[in-house]
Amino acid sequence: MVTRLYGAVCIDGVRKTEVRDLFLEGEMIRSELATRTRIDSEYKLDNHIVVSGGIDLHTHIGGGKVNIARLLLPDLVNHRNPNSDRMAAEQPWLKPLSSPVPGTWETGRRYLEIGYTACFEPALLPANARHSHAEMADTPWLDTGGYLLLGNDRLLLEWIRDGVPQEQINAYVGWMVHAHQCCAVKVVNAGGIDAFKFNQRHLSVDDSHVHLGITPRQILNALSQAVDSLQLAHPLHVHCSNLGLAGNIAATMATIDAVEGRRLHLTHAQFHCYGKDGPHGYSSAARELADRVNADPNLSIDVGQVQFGQTVTLSGDTMHQFANRKLARPRKAIFQDLECQAGCGVLPFRYRQDQYVHGLLWSIGLELFLRIEDPQHVFLTTDHPNGAPFTSYPHLIRLLMDYDYRMSIFSRLHPDVQKSSPLPSLTREYSLEEIIKMTRLGPAKALGLNNRGSLCDGKLADIVVYESCENPEQMFSQPKMVFRRGQLVYRDGVFLADSIKSTIVSSVEIEPQMDAMLKKIWRTRYGYSTEMISVRTGELQSERRIVEEN
Amino acid sequence: MICPFCSLLCDADDLNQVCCRRRESSLVEVTKMRSWHGSSILDSESVSNAINALRSATRILVTGRISSVQTARAAVAFAAKYNATIDCAEGGHAFKNILAIQRSGLNSVSLAEARDHSDVLIVVGDDQLLAKVPRIPSALANEKSVKHTVLLLGDFSEASMSIWREAGFDVWFVPCEMNAVPTALAQWSRWSDSNRDSLSAAGPLFEKLAQARYTTVLWSAENLQIENADLWVERMLQWIATRNENTRCAALAWSSLDGTFQQVCTWLTGFPGRIAFLARTPEYDPCRFSYQEWLAKKPTTDKRKSVLVVIDETASATPFFKVSDLPTDTQVIEVTANSKTFPTAIAGVEIAADIFRADQTLLARVEPSIEPRSYAKSAPHWLEALSRW
């Protein structure tokens, strides 16, 4: 099957933005075809732009905490939104999700509808890995992958306390990534989730775990060494200590220092760059973090932008989720201590634009985007659903591309935010190329997805066609067409075909000695064999599912 | 090897040598089922008859004992296709916990965390817990040298207490009515909070409870034979939540094998499994869409248009409803191990199945231990065949 797209402006952040022909041959992009190749279909796309499929490197789309949030909040589901008729008349491109945590069928459909084709679950609990993969397998159209949650697994923490050789930790991390079919390693509040199980309510980077006596700094250092030693494509993916606390920028800086210059990705960084100044003892420290990112080529962030409205926060960080329990709206929450490995906290939350802190979070996220110079070091996320549902991405893109629009929202915020935020002075407007780099090329590079992220010859033909429009929110909300692996799967609001899905995993050699050691340990500590939790590659494969290595 | 006969999913090394009562009786059931020889060919007439009944039906209920991810997926897709109501046979038990959680939230702990970390275990219920999950005491007993405390509240026999003791626990038993447990615990909390200095005078049990570093409270929804059990669970959850203000405490709310169905239905549709599809859109109502409610409702028009689709991929031979309970002239389509038209392979025994352990944390791949019967197909196979029109 060969498809020709012509007349459209091709944008990928690699080659010059210009009108050119693009060929989709089988699953691949070709800039040229061999002579006499028969073209099966052609699309004339004047006044359109063509980009590669969006890649969301941090979105909670599968696993225990997502599902328990669905179970907790049937009252937030609204398939027949009372505002939808009015909204449909005014802004026909804005379709709300039926819930902040919709089912997998809806998640896959809505991601495709905004032009995303690959999404990564960033907190995959080892014991819950098969569940997470099963759920992502049921999310149609999207290629998926998971980041393994380590750094609160008691076995690792005990080994760090006991001073085992770094090589043993490297082998353990490799075994865990392999056994759970993941593509990266994530750490959430290093040591803090486990400390909370011992009733410790606060743990900063250099504080000691009340039971084990180790510090988050030691954990971060050991894990970053392991990730580099194993040559995982994605750097250690870190949810810092002190989530949401005023003054937590100090812990964030200490986290960066803890890895001693190794590669590091800070996730939902917006929630981790607060100062203690300002009228309510809560201020922006975005400049400090942005300066650090601009100066350090080994450091990247995703933002976790907040948008106003109802959502649900779900995180492995039970310590801080529990601390926020009284802020839950509606007033109910779930906290789980899980399998000597981690935990989870689920807390429904409503961000209000007239509330000082909420308005500040909104402006800090935008500050980070606008202060970080290279869009390949800052990625567009809302930490779905924590900051907002992923369907708000087109709105966020407009905020970044249109200063006046940004200020029109800013003018509605709490007066103290308007007085204290430096946002009005940041007049930068993102270009289309920068948006595409931030949502395609950058995440592909950060995850080692060498066959994705641009329109270059030989890349996977995950292609999105948008009709050019002055309003980027409208444009990014309704692609004209989406191709998955060269096949047209969506056109003008109609889903035409299913697509082959892939699970992206890291190829890691496991050490036989570690395998034997963990088999014994697992039986003693967990009471079952490693067979119970090891996910075999064959389980991720079927007629319509494949496994790819990054 | 993982045992699929109860929601603990044992994978003890000695599983074949030391069977528990539950496993022994289930193996007998499996043997009986396999002694029956059915049709070996897909009977296209049966399939087309069933499809015709489904297409002309005005009310369809999909129910049964669904224990695997694979079948749960197929059942939900099938229900969506036919705009049916779906609720599993043991939904009544699952919703005792689910309704309470949806109102008040939850502090919970998984099995291995409780095993490794919990120093006091409060078990609420009766002997039925061990009848349903015989190996739970050994699963919760860690190999540390310090004996942990288990407090049994409810109606337990000496035999039950012995099993907990043999597993290595320091066992205490306080006989009481189930209904009284949440109130008693709340009273004890208030008393101990205001008498911190004289706890030792109240006896060693009170002292242990008050000094617990991490308390786990275990109950099984299946064994809560009390009225308004969801309110009972809610009061327990509130007590646990209050405890967490100062110390750590969590529920281990045990579910049954149908927990797998609840999980899958929730991730596919956004709702736990008591839903009805309308134009393929799920609507959730845990009261209105229970299978008992469906069975109790008398069709107002042509009675022949009610179809009940029963799926059972477990080894249990005991039917979960009486034919006499069905509305007259309701047509039943059975996708079960013993079905004559759609004989179904037993999940985790004859075919591989992904099944959740009862704490809903761990999803295990249970490989088959015996060859499937030649004429039996997987439940998803039948459900897909019945969806093709």
Work out the oligomeric state of the chains in this entry. heterodimer
Put simply, the count of helices of chain B is 14
Percent strand of chain A: 15-25%
**Which range best describes the helical content of chain A: under 10%, 10-25%, 25-40%, 40-55%, 55-70% or over 70%?**
25-40%
How far apart, in Å, are the first and last alpha carbons of chain B? 39 Å
- What top-tier CATH class of the domain at 57-79 and 91-427 in chain A fits best? Alpha Beta
Order of helices and strands of chain B: HHEHEHEHEHHEHEHHEHEHEEHEEEEH
Strand order of the largest sheet of chain B: 10-9-2-1-11-12
**How many β strands of chain B by DSSP?**
14
Shape of chain B: globular
Q: Which topology of the domain at 57-79 and 91-427 in chain A does CATH recognise?
A: TIM Barrel
Query: Can you summarize the main beta sheet of chain B?
Result: 6 strands, mixed
Instruction: Give the biggest beta sheet of chain A.
Output: 10 strands, parallel
Shape of chain A: globular
What structural class do the secondary elements of chain B suggest? alpha/beta
Name of the top-level CATH class of the largest domain in chain B: Alpha Beta
C-alpha-based Rg of chain B, rounded = 23 Å
CATH topology heading of the largest domain in chain B:
Rossmann fold
Number of domains of chain B: 2
Can you tell me the residue ranges of chain B where pLDDT is under 50 for at least 5 consecutive residues? Answer: none
Helix content of chain B: 25-40%
